[in-house]
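== Item description ==
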Amino acid sequence: MTPPALEAIGLSKRFGGVLAVSDISFVVPAHSITALIGPNGAGKTTLFNLITNLTPPTTGTVRCFGELLAGLAPEAIAARGLIRAFQTARVFPGMTVLENVLTGAHTRIRSPAWRQMLWSGAARREEQGLRRRAETLLDLAGLLKLADRPASALPMGAQKLLEIIRALMAAPRLLLLDEPAAGLNDTETAELADMLRAIQDGGITIVVVEHNMSLVMGVADQVIVLDAGSVIATGTPAEIGRNPVVIEAYMGREDA
């Protein structure tokens, strides 16, 4: 039996006298898209930090495909297939779009440094393979024609897509996205939705923190709602959309 892609059990985080996240438990099935929603300050980004060990939990455990993540450094977690893209697009200035994408493959390079320095046949073949993968992903996002342009010159929407593509170069099994639709217009958000479905079709599990309810309701298989650091509801988009507790805590507050 395949273990869940992600399982959080009793996660809590206290910063001094403030309990930012309280006793959170949930399961993310493999090959699904799960959305984390909630008002500002609900604890969504803190929860992502706990999952990836950027911040150690006060209590609780996290498993990724059945493996405990406690005590692992972020790079060790990434090597196990859990990759995170941050809310703010971060491109490397002075590098092209293609070069930015290729940096995402650093955890997957197998040729030792001496082979790369000598430009051995094995190193050349590996780099050519990574370049083909990068170009394929850029084509998926409609950015291949911009491959040789400076990444910092791209508009914000394209930079957000570039951030996701760079994460995909690490060959994730589980991809965490923090507000990927922030700052995108309707056309860019629709393109993002298509990309998320394509990523899922490729066998990758996605967990996304998002405020854009249209995107959430259109792509998510499961929605987890946080409020004041606790889970207040879990269900399908349809179930969450008619849940009175969610309407009171989140949607109603947004309308206000």
Notes: The chain has a mean pLDDT of 86. The chain is about 40% helix and 25% strand. Strands lie at 6-15, 18-28, 33-37, 59-64, 67-68, 82-85, 174-178, 205-209, 222-227, 230-235. Residues 121-140 form the longest helix (20 residues).
